[in-house]
Amino acid sequence: xxxxxxxxxxxxxxxxxxxxxxxxxxxxxxxxxxxxxxxxxxxxxxxxxxxxxxxxxxxxxxxxxxxxxxxxxxxxxxxxxxxxxxxxxxxxxxxxxxxxxxxxxxxxxxxxxxxxxxxxxxxxxxxxxxxxxxxxxxxxxxxxxxxxxxxxxxxxxxxxxxxxxxxxxxxxxxxxxxxxxxxxxxxxxxxxxxxxxxxxxxxxxxxxxxxxxxxxxxxxxxxxxxxxxxxxxxxxxxxxxxxxxxxxxxxxxxxxxxxxxxxxxxxxxxxxxxxxxxxxxxxxxxxxxxxxxxxxxxxxxxxxxxxxxxxxxxxxxxxxxxxxxxxxxxxxxxxxxxxxxxxxxxxxxxxxxxxxxxxxxxxxxxxxxxxxxxxxxxxxxxxxxxxxxxxxxxxxxxxxxxxxxxxxxxxxxxxxxxxxxxxxxxxxxxxxxxxxxxxxxxxxxxxxxxxxxxxxxxxxxxxxxxxxxx
Length: 470
What we know:
One of its GO terms (cellular component) is membrane. The chain has 470 residues and is α+β, with helices and mostly antiparallel strands. 52% of the residues lie in helices and 11% in strands. The chain has one domain (25-466): CATH 1.10.630.10. The chain has a five-stranded mixed sheet, sandwiched between helices. The relative contact order is 0.15. Mean pLDDT is 87; it is low at 1-20.
């Protein structure tokens, strides 16, 4: 073998290795570890994140590289990008969250699992969260809502909506997921939970007095309390308790082929924490921004009120809502869907590549993060004409919206399993709000920031008048 031939082979090998590097997407990784993390976080808190992302898309096109939360990242957007992210079978990319989210929620939650593990855990969660199961809990949820409004709204002249909605949705979670009654224990877990979610999107540097450090400590306390609850639920089941009284007992009751629990204790804890975060933040933010819309648009408020009054009048006084009543709330849910389009609670998310991926003529290297952003298709005027206009009529025929373009709950096989829970919470709460109260905004500031969920300035204070006693 000649030296010339060896040289040619070596050059070919080197060129093959260099070629993917030449095909990296445009952009910069920025400062090591920090990258563009602080720029994005500052934009989110200033409510300019959509513009920050849109400017980047204008500058670099459909794909660009950056560094977020300590990891090299590729940002992709558009219908094709959403489809790539949400239809992956797990062979090319895996579920993945930022290091901060992973360390706070745990590595056995649905956002981290892929392949068979993802299917197994998702199926177990769906057994409780599917509509056929949730319809049995509408009454329990409604009782929490009525009690909340009696305690915090009835007889008041002014309330601040977002913190109250967070209190409400967390109480519903405690009731449905844990079977945890009101009292000191519930108060304790909500305190740690609020500290835990404070550092979900942060630079994962565990230094004293940082948000991330406080979140990690609070996460450890929440996990300790959930572990104790699981032990108690096991004893209750052994003593003949129903396997459908709450999510924990439901998951403990699901057995695999070997007659052992289908989910490990870590998987139960980590996924309950995930549902706590998703159910608490998504629903509370959605309801809050619907209250804002109803205050700002008299026509939409009148249409929602007409629909809900008809349902109320069709029932004997004091009778709880039935599953069939929720199906009649079509216009109210269209208002909710348009609210989710204009102010999606989830800004975006991440995946991790398991192999090099060829996309739009560039290589996304193995081991990198893929970052997608909800608003990129929600605010695209080629998909939603006049995207800044609030128009619930867009959803009169959902089939007319191209697939993978409306993604407040993700899409395809990756759609959020808590979607129906959020829908029921929202519809029942709005029913009681519009039929029992009128309100108006206390200030002219309609702005909000992201932290990372949308937060109305001042928490949305409103003046309220009670129509009748609950």
